[in-house]
Amino acid sequence: MQILTPQVFWAQRHGEIFLRVELSDASDVDISLQGHNTLQFRAQGHGAKGDNQYEFSLEFLEPVKSEIHQKSTQRQVDIKIRKRDERWWERLTLREKKPLFLAPDFDRWLDESDAEMELKAKEEKINKISVESRVRKDPYIGLKKGYLFMYNLVQFLGFSWIFVNMTVRLFILGQDSFYDTFHTTADMMYFCQMMAVLEVVNPLLGLVKTGFFPAMIQVAGRNVILFVIFGCLDEMQNKAVVFFVFYLWSSIEIFRYPFYMLACIGTDWKLLTWLRYSLWIPLYPLGVVAEAVAVIQSLPIFDETRLFSVPLPSALGHSLSFSYTLQLYLVLMFLGLFINFRHLYKQRQRRYRSRKRKVH
């Protein structure tokens, strides 16, 4: 019986070699590896020259692992062999001249760059599955998400009440509404800002991924303005600056809190996302400027009332006015503006880079 060579098609990945032997109804298939890189194939089947015994030998460019996976179908024999070292081969065989019976398998063919992209996609999928499995192992994940959802919902409702109340009063009373803002909204603002202390605690407990330091700067800064400047000085409570501070704070938060609230349930609204990551760019610096105006207006009042002044020995004077502390605080306020603005801008860049990757 005449011994013939079948048609063999090949393709590769970084870690594997694929061979497709065009031999239908193959039987007595014998595949072995000689040494570290020579494949021997022998089988009975129907090929290009009819029903005969077919065989071939391939000496690979580099060593391969001894384990061979093969599957015979009515149309062909599929062979998969793992490379010993996972890297791209410039050709299949040790000899530069390709055997006549060997051809590329264009159904599975990828060039090196495409194979790298496929490998990267597999790794990302594995990493995603690994992360999801770790998340599912957390028995308290539902409780944590429920807590964060309710926290953001309560803050959203509180700041929405402040924003709507101030807006309605502005339309009805005009500029007159500037001067009684504190007396009409302070209680709700006190509540919201005391609740905001949890935004400093949540990163420490690992409940959110946001940084501890930026959250502490914002919460501490606002509470100084609310509780020390406005809360302790009756003279400040009737000033127009209170309106601008409260209005700018609430304008930011009515978009920030619902964004995080919906993120807890895996929902993303494009318009809300854009507002959350864009409105702060003008509003946050304006809010800091309004806070700075409030501090500057309070300086002569603290000098006059001597509130929070530090007593000094008689040789040095009567007391050290709290206004000096606030002047230092003004400097720290604008330093905090720079730190937080940089942090928020990086958040925005990361957000839109990840959205572009998902689109592509």
Keywords:
360 residues; single chain; alpha+beta; 9 helices; 4-stranded mixed beta sheet; 11 strands; Immunoglobulin-like
In helices, the fraction of residues equals: 55-70%
> In whole angstroms, how far apart are the ends?
57 Å
Structural class: alpha+beta
Shape: elongated
Give structural notes.
Pathway: Lipid metabolism; fatty acid biosynthesis. It is an enzyme of class 4 (lyase). InterPro entries: CS_dom, HSP20-like_chaperone, Tyr_Pase-like_PTPLA. By secondary structure, the protein is of the alpha+beta class. The protein has 2 domains: 126 residues, Sandwich (Immunoglobulin-like), CATH 2.60.40; 222 residues, no CATH class. It contains 9 helices and 11 strands. The strands form 3 sheets. It has a 5-stranded mixed β-sheet with strand order 7-8-3-2-9, with no helix packed on it. A hairpin with a 7-residue loop joins strand 10 and strand 11. Helix 4 packs antiparallel against helix 5, helix 5 packs across helix 9 and helix 8 runs antiparallel to helix 9. The chain is elongated. The two termini are 57 Å apart. The model has no long low-confidence stretch (mean pLDDT 86).
